[in-house]
Amino acid sequence: MSGRHASRMESQAAPPPARVLLLEPFYGGSHKQLLDLLSAHLDSCVAFTAPAKKWHWRARTSALYFSQKVPPNPGYRVLFCSSVLNLCELAALRPDLARLKKVLYFHENQLVYPVRKEQDRDFQYGYNQILSCLVADAVVFNSAFNMDSFLSSLSPFLNKIPDLRPPQDLLALIRPKCQVLHFPLHLADVDRLLPTNKLPAAAHGDDVITPPTRPDSPETALHIVWPHRWEHDKDPQLFLSTMLKLKDEGLDFRLSVLGETFTDVPEFSRCRPLLEPHVLHWGGLACRERYLEVLRQADLVLSTARHEFFGVAMLEAVHCGCYPLCPKALVYPEIFPAEYLYATPQQLLKRLRNFCTQPRHVRAHTLKVDTSRFSWDVLKGAYQSLLSP
Fold first, then answer.
1. Which residues face 138 on adjacent strands?
2. What is the per-residue pLDDT across 72-87, written as a single tens digit (0 to 9) for each?
3. Cα torsion for 342, 346, 349, 350, to the nearest 10°?
């Protein structure tokens, strides 16, 4: 075969050039789920990532890393990244990428992200996100709560600058770029692992979306699942103290404590021996199939978060049939009806106490949360439009 012919054949077999560049400095959790969805289901995407560890260093240095890691490609038309990346720095280091349509996605925002003490808040992280918004062409938030809290905090945040504050109204520059596009759940993966009798109605082709409910099994104890990161912003102290109070009252319940662990959390080590008779699972499950199996077996999914901008774990658990209990704050009123919200720790304890004594009421309940509106099937078109040049 001649060299010219071989080259022509290779050219015909080559994939189309990538048009969308996906960058994720913190490739884990919901950040990983979103990037994997976009890579797998949208055409002409290429992704560059960094492992999900040392978050603070990713926020500080990933722009330099990606500026040297991503080779030039004249086919790129769109750049998509999470707000962990300092997009402003990347655009300065790579003028070829600065010319693309730049989409900045906020899983969280650092202007209102909870810290143990306000004096511990590092101004630079929020400042970097503001700069990234200024150079982005589209700024996308996973919830209205995320967007509204960011925009309403922008001016007070900048007022912390002791002098030489920006003379121009930055809110007026950023707000027109902003939109809400909910995080897309890949519910087809969840449905694939659910038994037919547990599938939501939509999976059978029905018009009404009704998440599965638990069978009425009064003889078994209430199974509570807490599927969150073991970090202070999820308020493990409230969760563990509430479980210990249920135990001290002699109430029967079973407990699955899941979620990722990035640092040592002494509260969990201290409380596990005290809760041991109630524990079914303790620690993150590496296998997603096994994780979903635990959600299917659980009766109630609990959040005690002091920070939540969307809540993938809560919605996946609800889709598997768990009754949700969430704080009456943050993003939760945007997603869950009022009957699933509690306002105080005392209200939370009272409701759990009632559910432990009468678990049949939880299992017989028909959930009033439409998880389908957050599904990839529903949101795919909006993401395709967002990532069009």
1. 103
2. 999 999 999 999 999 9
3. -80
Q: Is the pTM of this model over 0.85?
A: yes
The position carrying tokens 């599904």 is: 375
| Inside any domain, residue 388 | no
Judge whether 322 lies within some domain. Answer: yes
Backbone φ, ψ for residue 341 (5° rounding): -115, 145
**Which of 344-365 are b and which e, b meaning 16 or more Cβ less than 10 Å from the residue's Cβ?**
eeeebbebbbebbeebbebbeb
Q: What pLDDT is stored for residue 260 in this prediction? A: 79
- In the chain, DSSP assigns E strands to 20-27, 45-51, 78-82, 101-106, 138-141, 178-180, 222-227, 253-258, 279-282, 300-302, 323-327, 341-342
| Domain interval for residue 212 | 191-371
* Residue of 162, 275, 298, 284 lying closest to 222 (CA atoms): 298
Same domain, 195 and 271: yes
**Residue 360 DSSP SS3:** helix
CATH of the domain at 258: 3.40.50.2000
Does 135 lie in the same domain as 196?
no
Task: Specify the residue for token string 């143990």.
Answer: 116
117-122: long-range contacts at Cβ-Cβ below 8 A with a sequence spacing of 24 or more?
Answer: 122/56
Q: Inform me whether the pLDDT recorded for 117 exceeds 90.
A: no
Q: How many domains does the chain have?
A: 2
- DSSP per-residue letters across 281-299: EES--S-HHHHHHHHHH-S
Q: Supply the Cα-derived Rg of the chain in whole angstroms.
A: 23
User: Residue 127: how many CB atoms within 10 A of its CB?
Assistant: 18
Residue 202 has pLDDT above 60, yes or no: no
